[in-house]
Design brief:
The protein contains 6 helices and 16 strands. It is an alpha+beta fold. The strands form 4 sheets. The protein has an 8-stranded mixed β-sheet, with helices on one face. The longest helix is centred in the middle third of the chain and has 10 residues.
Length: about 280
């Protein structure tokens, strides 16, 4: 399913979470595979900005155009021990054919590596890179696309080779970059209430936490508690309708994304609220 994930611009985490019980490496012919292609947007009001939500291994780019489409791409993030840090940054440099300055910690493990690896097909930086304003973090491509949707880097943020080119063209230097930890997101569409829950090893969000947030947003009266508990237990990483079935004006349909372009987030009429 790694190849299927890339075809639909998904990460390894997304294809496996949406298909529990399916072997991601030896998938039998005829297996029905769910393709998750709608997302609730992270609760970050800054525009324009790049928003990276670590628990879902996904990047969102909110352009400065009012009502403009939101570009979204799957990510590889920092491995345990070299975690990608949370925070607010800016893009300070755009680099074509970046060289890789091999960290000392990596050269200790692999002394055969040079101090600097020039651009090329074996360079883990890929074809393009965006340097951020702190912590020596970069958003860049990769020569190992199977690491997208996994903890696979030393702190940087990796995109599929085709996705880094699209993002590189869309953003400019000075663009804000916000890295957040929102394993559960809440959204509304008319009378309908949606919850999107992701598995994470970074922070713990309980059903009680989400109930409190729904109450704060005055959405608890519309919410079916049994549906919410099931969504939080499964944590399949897709927007799930948790609205009471008998609620007047509720249309029990999943939020649809625009079909005019690859990697477009859920529609703008969804009001999205993250649960940190």
């Amino acid at each position: 399913m790694i190849e299927i994930a890339r075809k639909f611009d998904l990460g390894f985490n997304e294809i496996t979470a949406a298909n529990p019980g399916v072997d991601p490496f030896v998938t039998n012919a005829g297996t029905l595979v769910n393709i998750p292609t709608a997302w609730l947007l992270p609760a970050v009001p800054l525009r324009p900005s790049v928003v990276i939500n670590l628990p879902e291994f996904r990047l969102y780019y909110f352009s400065k155009q009012p009502g403009g489409k939101v570009l979204t791409f799957p990510l590889g993030i920092g491995d345990q021990g070299t975690d990608t840090p949370l925070g607010r940054y800016r893009i300070v440099q755009k680099i074509v054919k970046p060289a890789w300055h091999v960290p000392t910690s990596i050269r200790r493990k692999e002394p055969s590596l040079p101090k600097v690896m020039q651009a090329g097909p074996d360079n883990p930086m890929g074809s393009h890179a965006l340097r951020l304003s702190s912590h020596d973090i970069l958003i860049h491509g990769t020569d190992r696309p199977w690491g997208i949707g996994r903890r696979s880097s030393h702190g940087c943020l990796r995109l599929y080779p085709e996705d880094i080119v699209s993002l590189f063209r869309a953003v400019s230097t000075g663009t804000q970059v916000v890295i957040v930890d929102q394993p559960v997101k809440i959204g509304t569409n008319g009378k309908s209430v949606y919850v999107e829950a992701h598995r994470t090893d970074r922070s713990v969000v309980t059903v009680g936490d989400v109930v409190q947030r729904l109450a704060d947003e005055k959405l608890l009266g519309r919410t079916d508690f049994a549906k919410l508990v099931r969504v939080m237990e499964e944590r399949r990483g897709v927007p799930a309708d948790v609205t009471l079935d008998f609620l007047e004006g509720h249309s029990p349909t999943a939020p649809k994304r625009a079909e005019t372009a690859k990697g477009v987030a859920a529609p703008n009429q969804l009001k999205n609220r993250g649960v940190p």
